[in-house]
Every structure is written in structure tokens, then in C-alpha cells.
Amino acid sequence: MRDTTASVELLGQICAQFHLQNLTPQLNACSETLRSGGRVEVAVLGQFKAGKSSFLNTIIGSEIMPVNVLPATAVITRIGYGPTDRAVVHRLSGEIEEIPLAELPEYVTEQRNPRNEKRVALVEVELASLAPYRGICFVDTPGLGSIFAHNTQASMDWLPKVGGAIVAISANQPLGEQDLRLLGEVFKHTPEVVILLTKADLVSDRERKAVIEFTQWQIAQNTGGRQLLVLPFSNRPDFERFQNDVREYLLTNVAGRHEELFVKIMGHKLSALISECRAYLILAQTAAQSAEAARSELRDMIRREREGLDSLGKEIHVLTRDLKTRVRTAAGERFHDLHGELTKRLCASLKKAMGAWTGSLAKRTQAFQDWAARAFEEELGRVSEHGKGYLEEYLIEAQVSFHRTVRAFQDRLSKEIERALGISFESARFHAEIAAPRKPDVKMGQVFDSHIDLLWFAIPMGLFHRLFERHFLRLIPWEVEKNLSRLASQWADAVNASIDSLARQSMESIQNELATIEGLVSGVGDQCSAIETALRRLDECSECLAIPNGRGDAAAHFGNC
Fold first, then answer.
1. What pLDDT score was predicted for residue 475?
2. Higher-confidence residue: 91 or 244?
3. Gyration radius (Cα) of the chain, Å
4. Residue 516 contacts by C-beta under 8 Å, 6 or more apart in sequence?
5. CA 3, 9, 15: angle at the middle one, nearest 5?
6. How far apart are CA 59 and CA 472, in angstroms?
7. Partner of 279 at 20 to 30 A CA spacing, among 3, 140, 374, 416?
């Protein structure tokens, strides 16, 4: 552990000394993993409604984690062993507050904490029932499991901190592009990955076997031949054998070997960070040892790229504007396609409800308003549940486009560096996250154009109740139209904010990379000795930790990656 701590400190010093800003996420991940004191954090990832919370509740042995109709926020929740059951909220301000476990949904769900209004950075849950799992903790990451992640620094920077990963995939939904992209990101930060095939009760034994084989084949095809263990799981009482198999796996191969896994995880993270750090230093060293003509050519390249930043920014702005316009158009069209179906369901529900209404016009108007508030919230909640599916193609396109823009810039720099200095150079990995939309709210319009309900005492409802019931029914199509418009606008605003965030992160990454290389190349004569010393210390660090080249043999127990 001392060697690992010294290595992280050394890498921090080198990154600070040479201003390697784009390595900050990886460095922070190593530091936080080290501060865990040897505890392995096992992230539970996956698409919304893949069964992650149900899985965690089964492992815990009680209904602790909220299982919501609507997506939860991306507030990170750590669940591990503690002598007494408790929950501790860590706020972004640095304040810490212990809360009753029953209040957990108030802080970690989008429904009770929309857009993280309570400014929660992290919630830690300790449970005595997890005593068999000492040495590991489970991390619930609802935001990271979808294409959305809540727009806080805690969630933006969290993925590099993953220790082990359980990726939940529903048996009734094939492995999708987002699942594969998620796996690709996870593999960059840990070799310890296993697939949890949830809702395994929905398919027959033969179908389940076929799904497992197909999932493994898809992963191998899309990840360079990686072979992952797939564990079927269901939280239904009739499928306890699956629950027991997963528990046994976690107890034997994860909790029972957490010290070994921790060493492998730290080795994986440090190996990647040392390799990236070395690449920048070799660039600086080669520049220092090259002829003045080569250095001059490199400085000219940096100047040209800096002068071209305005043009690149305009290119990103045009791409952003086009995507946002298409998102708004698509949101309006796709949500309004549901108008007829939603109106039909609400009218049927209203007719049934009105059969039990009695009393004056004022009482019936209040009953209608109460019914409408409940019914619209429930129906729009169901619609919103599928909102990301209506727009995710644009988020995927945005992610791919911005990553491609940054990658093209990095490739151009690499070619110029190779042409000037004759070395192969690869920039630090670019990370980007996407903000989650808030839970839609529902606002009903005025029931009557005038305050006719104030005249309730003069209206004989025995004669006129049918008239007013027809009026209530005529209000439904308009209220559906209005609320679908608002819901479409909310989703479009949220997705477009995510696109803006991606654009900002892209430009910041490009600017940081250019500044880093410029700093390494300028004044290299004064840095020669420091660079040689830093490279030597990195080599000593690798030897001391016995870090293998490439991916190494990690993951022998947690998925055989």
C-alpha cells in the first residue's frame, strides 16, 4: 500500500509540474480509490429500468433502495457494511448530515430531489446486513447507467473511479448500442466487469441460454474478443436459485478476494495513468533533444492551431445549433404523436371517475381538478419514462460527433508531432457526461372560462350534471395538447443543455491539450534535467509496482476480461 500511495503522489507531482491538465480525471480516480483503504467499489450500471435497484435490494435483504417509476437522479449512492444501519448525506457545500434510512428517496430520486435541488454530492449507506460483504461496497449509479448523467461535478468525474462493475442488462431487451458504449468506457478504467442478466424469469431456460450466448458473442465482437461472465438474475421468489448463485459469486470471488482485486484495480489504473504521463514527457524530452528547426516547426504548428481555435469553435457552434434545432423538432413531433392514445385513456378514466361524483358544481369541479392532477401526473410520468428513447439518437449523435471533433484535433496534433519530432504520440482520453432531464411537472388550466362554478347554489345539478360532465371531457384534448407540449419542451431543453455541456467540454479539452503541449515544448532547454528525472521515476514506479504492459492478467475472477 505504501508503494501505491507513493506512486499516486509521484504522479500528482509530475502532472502538476508539467501542467498535464487532461490527466486530472484519471489522477483523481486513483487518489479516491486509494483513499478507500483497500475497499473495492463495485458499481451497478445499466439502462433505466434494467433492474439495478431491485438487484441491490435483493443483495441487501430489504427494500432500502428506491424503485421508481421515473428515473432517479445521478446522485451517487454507496452501500456497504456498517455496525449499525444509517445513511449519511454529503452535500456539494461540504456539509455532512445523517438521515433516517426511510428518507433516502428524498435525496437520491429525481421525483423527490428534482435536478438535485438539495445539492447532494454523495449518499453513503451502511447496513449491518452486509457484514458478509466486508471489504467491498456497492455503488448505485442511476445516471451513469443511462445515456444521461446528472450535471454535477460528482457524477461528471465519477466513472474513472469505478473499481469493479456489474452491468445490468434486461433479458427481454437485447444488448444495445448504449450498453456497448458503456462497457467500452468501463473497460478503460477497470478490468473487473461482469454482466448481470436481470428479469431472467421472463424467458424460458432455452431462451435464457440463447440470450446469454448472444450477449457474450456481441460483447466479444465489439470489444476486441473480451469474454465476460453472464449471471442470470431475478428477484422473484420462484427464482431463488439465481439469487443464491449471484450471492455466492459475490461472496466467493469478490468479497472473499477483495484485497487481491484491489491490487489489480489499482495496478490497472496506475498502469494507464503512467503510460499517458510518460507519453507527454517523452514528447517534451524529444522536443528538447531535437534540432532547433524541428522545435520551430512544432511551435509554428501550435501557433496555427491556436489561431484556428476560433474556426474550430464556430464549427462546434454550428454542429451544436443544428443538433439542438433537430432535437426540438423531433421532441414536438414524437411527443405529440401520443396525443390520440393519451386522450383516449384519460377520457375513459374520467368517465369512470365521474360516475361516483355527487354534490354541487363547486364540489364536482374540485373533484375534477383533483382527478386531473393525479391522472395527468401518472400518464405523463409514463410518457416521460420513454422520453430518452424518443431523443436518444440525437444524444448518441452528439456524443459521437463531439468525440470525433476532439479526436480529429488530437490526431492532427499527433501527425504534426510525428512529422516534426519523428515520434508516435497519443493524447489523454477525452471524457464527457450528459445532464439528465428533470421530472416533468403538470399544470392544469382553468376549468371554466368564467367563474361559473361560483354560482353553484343556483344550478340544479340533477338536471345539468351531464352538461358539465361533457364540458369536463371536452377539456381533456386541450389539456393533453398543452401538457405534451410542455413535456416535449422540457425534454428538448434538457437534451439541448446536455449538448451545450458536451460542446463546452470538447472545447475545454482541446484548449487544455494545446496549452499542455505548448508548455512542454516551450522552454524545453530548461526542463531537460527535470524531464529525465521524471521519466526515470516513472520507470522506477512501474518496476516497484510490477505493473504489466497492456491490460495484464487482471479480471481473472471478476468476469475474466
1. 86
2. 244
3. 28
4. 18, 19, 20, 21, 22, 280
5. 135
6. 48
7. 3
Q: Is the pTM of this model over 0.85?
A: no
Q: Which three cell numbers stand for residue 28?
A: 483523481
> Which run of H or E residues covers position 41?
strand 40-46
Of the two residues 299 and 233, the one the predictor is more confident about is 233
Distance CA 4, CA 162 (A): 17
Tens digit of each residue's pLDDT (9 = 90 or more) over 93-141? 678 999 999 899 888 887 787 767 787 878 999 999 999 998 888 988 7
CA–CA gap between residue 442 and residue 374 (Å, rounded): 9
pLDDT in tens, 352-365: 988 888 777 778 78
Q: For residues 330 and 394, is the Cβ–Cβ distance under 8 A?
A: yes
Could you tell me where the beta strands, DSSP code E, fall in 181-317?
Answer: 192-198, 230-232
Contact call for residues 267 and 551 (beta carbons, < 8 A): no
Q: Packing angle between helix 461-521 and helix 258-289, nearest 10 degrees?
A: 50
Round to whole Å and give the CA distance between 284 and 66: 51
Phi, psi values for residue 86, rounded to 5° = -165, 165
155 pLDDT above the threshold of 70: no
Average pLDDT, the chain: 80
pLDDT above 60 for 544 = yes
Confidence of residue 183 (pLDDT cuts 50, 70, 90): confident
**Distance of alpha carbon 354 from alpha carbon 367, whole angstroms:** 9
CA distances from 278 to 14, 32, 534, 541 (A): 10, 22, 9, 12
End-to-end CA distance of the chain: 25
